[in-house]
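Throughout our pipeline, every protein is held as a single compact record rather than as scattered files. Nothing more is needed to write down the fold, since each code stands for a local backbone conformation. The record that follows is passed on verbatim for readers who wish to inspect the format.
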Amino acid sequence: MKKKNLKVGLFIPCYVNQLYPQVGIATLELLEKLGVDVHYPQGQTCCGQPLGNSGYEEDSKGICQLFVENFKAYDYIVGPSGSCIYHVKHHFDILEQTEDVKRVRDNAYELCEFIVKVLGKKDLGASFPHKVGLHKSCHGLRGLKLGSCSEVKGEHYSTEEDLLNNVKGLQLMSLNRQDECCGFGGTFSVFEETISVKMGKDRVNDHIASDVEVLTGADHSCLMHMEGLINRNKQPLRVMHIAEILNSTL
């Protein structure tokens, strides 16, 4: 099967759909420009992660099963959210492991991982002449293994860095803490607000101290958390999902 003939189901997380539609559009345009046969299942809803994170996994079974029904016909499921994809791959074990469920779990990919590992591309011909700071979300980094962790010795690798380093004019800035948590954690930011805010401020200040102009990442939930802090504190930092950068001037 040729890569360009792969039938991909585009998964747009509910919060992206409601609050950041430009990220969903950028993801769709990017995949289409890379020659992928993209389909958007109209019946898709939440993946069930918020319920699971709050300890209500049993109550999320219907949502998870609906996700499987919507995406079981595709060769791959691709979404611009490491945490949501992680939930599909690692927490759909609450369902009966039918062939459809196993197929969906095995073929779910975060956007950057799909581009690098499945399509085999790193240089997308994008151009973005700005100083960029990369936030590596916990679910993507430590859950999906999208990069090496600073606390683990070994060879350094990062699918997100591989893509950003090939964007014309982009300067990927070095941070003091390369992969520290932003403190969002879904409902953690609600139940442990003070800790969450302090962690988020630390991440934002690290980017500002590192002369970053644009803060990016592959998980807009983390970006949403930090962007809220940036806006409230009127700090000079722009926030963009990595799909928007990779889609620029392709």
